[in-house]
Amino acid sequence: MTASYQHMPLAQVEPGMVLSDELLDVQGHVLLPQGTVLTDATIALMPRHGITMLPIAVLAEPTEEELSARQARHLERLAHLFRKSDLDSDWASALLHRFVTDYRLGQLPAEE
Amino acid sequence: MNTMLTYDDIVNNLEDLPSLPAVVMELLNSIDQEDVDISVLAKKVSYDQALTAKTLRLANSSLYGLQVKVTTIQQAITFLGFQTTRNLITAAAVTGCFAERHCKGFDHKAFWRHSIASAACARVLARQMRFNQDYAFTGGLLHDIGRLVLVACFPKEYEKAIAYRDEHDSYTLEAERAVLGIDHVAAGMALADHWNFSDTMKLAIAHHHSPEAQGAGFLAAIIHVADAIAHALDLAKTPDGLVPSVSTVAWTALGLDEEVYLQLFRETELQYEEIAMVLLS
């Protein structure tokens, strides 16, 4: 449903944020359905269910600068992770690199 | 360098390793048997409360989409089948059995984060390929188990291998071979023999870095690609994370396109969070 989401530590979660996926407890029970708007009360209940990370929908359109800064961070990290791969000659590694890059930057698959 | 180890050194030290609960050994040994008495095994597992609790939490996670909550091992077997339940028990037992040895530079938590990420990814890949998802999950979880063997048996020597890796920014495998004279693949094989893993699992452990080898088997290809994806998705979150070179043979064997991979990355991340919450708690 939501195009974009991030796993956010409980401490950073604020009332008004929206769940991008259904929230499960450690036993796998659904605690809250997808799309729930979190409140102080629901957030306060999380520790009791052992929840430390929540899938939060990214709703507000980030500014141009935020977006490009985030993309730059992703690209920098990916360059670091793939630092040993020869992306010019090793085509399987190059494809994995391209797919994960597209995934991180939220792009649709390029037309072949 | 006077620390070169041989395969025999590993084998001779395996006896000192923590052993799995007897019932888990029994489960591993019976992996190819059709006529095991399930009710007896279920009962034995249930004597181990911690193991039972972890297994049931995995069984009730959204991975398996059960409509009812299972509360006993016997019930888990009824709803998930013997093989899936056995794999869950194994996962719960193995992740809890190695004590954290002091070995400078080796991060036990990060090790398991990567193993769980690989397991989650291998399982999603296997479903896509119509391959046995339980084998893939267990294979992903155990593919690097040899590193734990080396850490447990030779912590001082392994520290040197890690120092070498950091100094040369090399792959772990290269550092192990250069410093120890043996790598985690061989150590994993020794343990797989010792613990009586099935042949399928042994092949996957043996060839997760060499899926193009003759007779490596399809599971090795799945684990190899899952390992690379887990590194690329950065799920273990280690600062010096490094994606291994992807085998073109394994990549071609899977033959998936970008759209499938993007979907698979998302599923892997979600499943990873959930499994890690159970197994690392």
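Chain B touches chain A at residues 56-57, 60-64, 66, 69, 169, 171, 228-229, 231-234, 241-243, 245-248, 250-252, 257-259, 261-262, 265-266, 269-270, 273-274, 277-278, 281 (CB under 8 Å).
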